[in-house]
């Protein structure tokens, strides 16, 4: 059984994954903007900006944890250079924690690890129940479209 994950933010994305043979779809970033997510204010702000722009600039980095993860970039933030040397995981995460905390307090998003997938520009600020309902509606429409195209 294959579960599709990565870049899925809409019911249409779920339908595409199912049409390609996946048994299900896993959505992550799609839920970061929900009220129930516990996402920090700075993170929410960047997600809202990405949604308003219709794109979320992200970059893969190892700088914060020593493991590769996708960081959401702030407007105007340049792609960060990868450090030449990193401590092993989880030590790197611990070493950068005070830096990230001070950056959050000072409102400096460039020095924070605001994780988000490549589809961050499709984020929607809804309660979880509303997002799930919307995804279901979009999925139904997309599946109906797939069924019609098979006729």
UniProtKB/TrEMBL annotation:
Species per Swiss-Prot/TrEMBL record: Tistrella mobilis (strain KA081020-065)
Entry-linked PANTHER family: NITRONATE MONOOXYGENASE-RELATED (PTHR42747:SF3)
Key words, A-Z: Dioxygenase, Oxidoreductase
GO molecular function: dioxygenase activity; nitronate monooxygenase activity
InterPro entries in alphabetical order: Aldolase_TIM
Coiled coil spans: none
Pfam families tied to this protein: NMO
Name this protein carries in UniProt: 2-nitropropane dioxygenase NPD
């Amino acid at each position: 059984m294959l579960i599709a994950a990565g870049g899925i933010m809409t019911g249409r994305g779920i339908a595409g994954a199912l049409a390609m043979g996946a048994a299900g779809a896993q959505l992550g970033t799609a839920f970061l903007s929900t009220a129930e997510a516990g996402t920090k204010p700075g993170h929410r702000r960047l997600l809202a900006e990405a949604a308003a722009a219709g794109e979320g600039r992200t970059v893969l980095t190892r700088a914060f944890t020593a493991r590769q993860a996708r960081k959401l970039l702030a407007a105007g933030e340049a792609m960060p250079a990868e450090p030449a040397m990193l401590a092993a995981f989880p030590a790197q995460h611990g070493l950068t924690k005070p830096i990230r905390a001070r950056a959050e307090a000072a409102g400096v998003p460039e020095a924070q690890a605001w994780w988000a997938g490549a589809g961050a520009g499709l984020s929607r600020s809804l309660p979880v129940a509303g997002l799930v309902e919307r995804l279901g509606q979009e999925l139904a429409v997309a599946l109906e479209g797939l069924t019609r195209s098979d006729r």
